[in-house]
Design goal:
The protein is α/β, with parallel strands linked by helices and about 270 residues long. Helices cover about 35% and strands about 20% of the residues. Strand 1, helix 1 and strand 2 form a beta-alpha-beta unit. The longest helix is centred in the middle third of the chain and has 20 residues. The radius of gyration is 19 Å and the shape is globular. The two termini are about 30 Å apart.
Length: about 270
């Protein structure tokens, strides 16, 4: 079995490659030309440079005709409010993916986002109507709808897996966990943050990667899924747990930063039964 992975050098993508390697499948890792980040040290991975903004004439052929494309790539993050997401990135994404499907791609697994739900609170079902309030969430949700229309005209297997919050090694420096680690490494005694009372759905990135690899290795027409724990946890409890687990002495300074206004105070994913 051959699985192609876009965003293969990214935070999630690097962990996904390790998981796929454990399954003994053929891996085609897609990278952009000129990327300076090191490749993960995994044997038997075929690296292919493809620019989604300027794709080849036959994307399926350029991807080495995989059985499944696990699509993780998305540019313009973490600025969720930028109009770039639907003005520039959305048409590029659809152009690349629709080209691959029309060329013969049989199955597609895509990483969606919990921001497609917008400001809806509580347990969020995959079947819940989406109401995005950020350009990023809107662009992702629109791409999903476009692909569903394409699917009616050009049948293929589609799994749309919405990601929630994650943490782990090699995470972008602007995320909560690496910011906390950096503060500890710098010898700081306290860590300014929000009030920490917001409830979120967190999983370690290795678990997210395992689930994505499972979806790609057993392709099916699953439709909408939440890749989540299904268990809400307060950010305060999460940060204090990280500090305790690592034996750090840094002290959170709650209420120093505002809560994000593009997220509700309490939401988490509802996994399928």
């Amino acid at each position: 079995m051959k699985i192609a992975v876009t965003g293969a050098r990214g935070f999630v993508g690097r962990h996904v490659l390790y998981e796929l390697a454990l399954r003994g499948v053929q891996i085609v890792a897609i990278e952009r030309k000129g990327v300076v980040r090191e490749r993960p040290a995994i044997e038997n991975v075929q690296w292919i440079p493809i620019d989604i903004a300027n794709p080849p004439a036959d994307c399926f052929l350029a991807l080495e005709r995989p059985d499944v494309l696990l699509h993780l790539a998305w540019d313009g993050l973490p600025n969720y409010r930028s109009l770039y997401h639907f003005e520039t990135e959305l048409p590029r994404q659809y152009g690349f993916l629709s080209n691959a499907v029309r060329g013969g791609l049989p199955a597609l697994v895509i990483a969606g986002t919990c921001l497609e739900y917008g400001l809806q609170s509580g347990a969020l079902s995959p079947r819940l109507q989406t109401r995005p309030t950020t350009p990023y969430g809107f662009a992702k949700d629109t791409l999903r709808r476009e692909l569903q229309f394409l699917k009616a005209a050009q049948p293929f297997q589609l799994t749309w897996a919405r990601l929630y919050y994650m943490y782990g090694d090699d995470q972008p420096a602007t995320s909560l966990y690496p910011m906390l680690k950096a503060a500890v490494a710098a010898g700081r005694t306290d860590f300014p943050m929000s009030g920490g009372e917001q409830l979120r759905d967190y999983l370690p990135v290795c678990e997210i990667a395992r689930r994505l690899a499972d979806l790609a290795a057993c392709p099916a027409d699953r439709g909408l899924l939440n890749l989540c724990s299904g268990r809400p946890v307060s950010v305060r409890r999460l940060v204090e747990g990280w500090i305790e687990q690592n034996g750090w002495t840094i002290r959170p300074r709650y209420g120093e930063l505002p809560y994000a206004d593009y997220e509700p105070m309490a939401f988490w994913g509802e996994p399928e039964a």
